[in-house]
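Here is an idea for our session: we take a single protein and study its fold together. Which protein we use is up to you, so please pick one and set it down. Once you have written the record down, we can walk along the chain together:
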Amino acid sequence: MPLTIAIASGKGGTGKTTVAVHLAAWLAEQGRPVHYLDCDVEEPNGHLFLRPKWTVEEEVSIPVPAVDHDRCTRCGKCAAVCEFNAIAMLNKPLVFPELCHGCGGCTLVCPVQAIREVPRVIGTMATGRAGKIQFTQGRLNVGEPLAPPVIRAVQARRAPDAIALLDAPPGAACPAVATARGADVIILVTEPTPFGLHDLELAIATFRPLQKPLGVVVNRADADRRVQEYCAGAGIPILAELPAERRVAELYARGELLFAALPPWRDMFAKLWQQIKALQ
């Protein structure tokens, strides 16, 4: 199967999506089949730049328990097995669907089969094309706490014959790990600021146990070399240093790709691709 690349960051606003959409656009220009999967399901924005035409939209749900109180014996085993307190045992089982992770443990331990599972919609998923780029996007419903089920649904749509670019959620929490777990290579995008370096360190500590090749892209690179010095000490390669340019911010604010207005960026992403392949 072609390479699967997770593009992540220790914090929001570092340029993760900028790297992801331009790498997808560059690969498509080279005639490479590419599938962009926007796993940043709480705030997906890759579509603002690649502008896909949607062909399929569907709901994403998780199974939650529904209790047959006529059959229930009030034994309390369902509440005891739930790690997330989605079932509380009062004079009868009380279900809190928003806390349920859909593991199905309560249905397995119920001795009288008084619990069945019903779907609960937590988000949506859309699939389409942006020119030559296959595009899949997940979106978590407002107020829902569980991003990983939507992320897994997006990843399940991965085209087996295309290079997959997983635009991960920012940070180093469960949603980012759920995205990176399915990748062959993890690219961390950071910026040369104290906050950027601090959160990069957290991200590296989080992703290293996955035992995937790691590389770093420094966005808005300037004279501050602390990120580069840290990566050298940690044995993590710098794959690219993207310059800080006012013109980049102007184009980004309009949702435009950079290659037409800034031709040198095309060469930067050609070199980035070679560096990514060398990580394997």
